[in-house]
Amino acid sequence: MESKSSDRRKFLKKSVTFVGAAAAAAAAVRPVSGQSSMPEMEAPDLPALIAYGQRSPFVKSKRISVMERMSPDEFGMTFHVLSPLQDSVGIITPSSLHYVSTHRGSYVPNIDPAEHRLMIHGMVDRPLIFTVDELKRFPFVTRTHFLECLGNRAKSTHKTVQDSHGLTSCSEWTGVPLSVLLKEAGVQSGAAFIVAEGAESVKGATSIPFAKAMDDCLVAYGQNGEALRPHQGFPIRLLVPGFEGMHNVKYLRRIKVVEKDYMTYNDYGHIVPDARVASLTRVIGPKSVITFPSGEQKLPGPGFYEITGLAWSGSSAIRNVEVSTDGGQIWKSAELRTPSYPMAHVRFAFPWTWDGKECLILSRCTDETGTRQPTRVEAANYWNQPDNSDFRVPGADNSVFPWRIAGDGSVHNGLA
Ligand SMILES: Nc1nc2c(c(=O)[nH]1)N[C@H]1C(S)=C(S)[C@@H](COP(=O)(O)O)O[C@H]1N2
Ligand SMILES: [Mo]
Q: Of 74, 96, 279, 348, which is most buried, counting CB atoms within 10 Å of its CB?
């Protein structure tokens, strides 16, 4: 504990140095002789900025933590940090802007990878313990996948798309297929689930069906071309493509092969009397949201715009996205502007001329299994709920979300 808080102080000190450098860089802009009037960037700490690149001081996009969702639970706190989707382009979330969901407050373990181990045991012939370097010697795969927290549900009080949908992000992950490691250990017959556990105090444990563990799960050490970030589980995390965020155990240290679904710290949240709800909490989506124009942005006036946003599904790739600019009466196909990978964000765009009148814009998607994202009315009907805008969709909320564009071009939550 001693060393952790002194590490945190060191970390804080370092980030202060960087903020200082960035501020100095912004202040020190001056015209360069002989070259138009383009200002030049200068920083006292230029070697450090070269060693590990930083963005322009003019770019301000940032994550925000949600005190509202700092939910006290039986064991501590859950801390949520939202990704600024309103500023996103393409499908890769920069690692520094990836959403964060961590139990026990904002605590992030500071793990020395040389000391870290992953143990695979339980119903296996050969219990195994791997160092991180040993894991890296196995054949790797690199795949693009989204993560989404079950807490990602829109409310009428949300102002921006960061508030309403900021608990999803998408990265290119590199790691070893979990199936390779499980085969190495020799799984015994009767294995039905795995229990995965993290190294920090609350352990972030979760139970995952064995078939999923053998299908496409990864023990990931790489994110967007470099090592995982501490907030994403450095040095290794489990990646369970398409499953609710909670199953993607960070700081992964133990996998136990077991004969049934075990109750863990995380799984207790899934004890629900309604089997229909329980069955909807594991696999995410299909889901989409418009990121431009979105809440608190403003269209300068009537004319041409591209409506753009993200779509994703926990069970396959996205096949198509439709956009409505009249509150859901007419739906037209949007264009997919990036490759559509299974269990990944895809970016859609919809060329549009705004006539300057108040309107409601929405998007909905269909995945490769043919499942279409439900409107809130469809979801309300399914759950026999009154169709009011603040009805809480049980399980994962993948309902269609509206933005209202006012006559002055300002954009507002369409549920409000
Ligand atoms: N060890 C550990 N793993 C964890 C968690 C945690 O608190 N501890 N949080 C889970 C939850 S609830 C989510 S939504 C995802 C979030 O991953 P991210 O913080 O990298 O976005 O990690 C999951 N894995
Ligand atoms: Mo989560």
A: 348
Counting the structural domains of the chain, the total is 3
Calculate how far, in angstroms, residue 233's C-alpha sits from the geometric centre of ligand 1.
8
CATH number at residue 95: 3.90.420.10
Q: Which domain holds residue 345?
A: 287-413
**Cα 96 from chain centre:** 12
Residue 288 CB-half CA count within 13 A: 33
Q: Answer yes or no: are the C-beta atoms of 130 and 181 closer than 8 Å.
A: yes
CB 166 within 8 A of CB 84: yes
Kindly report the protein residue whose alpha carbon is nearest to atom 10 of ligand 1.
Answer: 246
Ligand nearest to the CA of 245: 1
> What phi and psi values does residue 75 have, to the nearest 5 degrees?
-110, -10
| Tens of pLDDT, residues 26-84 | 444 444 444 556 666 666 667 777 889 989 889 999 999 886 555 655 555 678 899 99
**Same domain, yes or no, for 230 and 170?**
yes
| 340 close to 266: Cβ distance less than 8 angstroms | no
CA–CA gap between residue 245 and residue 186 (Å, rounded): 28
Q: Judging by DSSP bridges, how do beta strands 218-223 and 237-239 pair with one another?
A: antiparallel
Using the 8-state DSSP alphabet, how is residue 410 labeled? B
Query: What's the Cα-to-Cα distance from 105 to each of 2, 79, 233, 240, 387, rounded to whole Å?
Result: 18, 5, 15, 23, 35
Which of ligand 1's atoms lies nearest the C-alpha of 233?
20
pLDDT per residue as tens digits for the range 178-221: 999 999 999 999 999 999 999 987 778 899 999 999 999 999 99
pTM above 0.85, yes or no: yes
Based on the fold, state whether residues 345 and 315 are members of the same structural domain.
Answer: yes
Ligand positioned closest to the Cα atom of 103: 1
Instruction: Single out the residue of 98, 137, 159 nearest to residue 345, CA to CA.
Output: 98
Residue 171 and residue 260: Cα distance in Å, rounded? Answer: 31
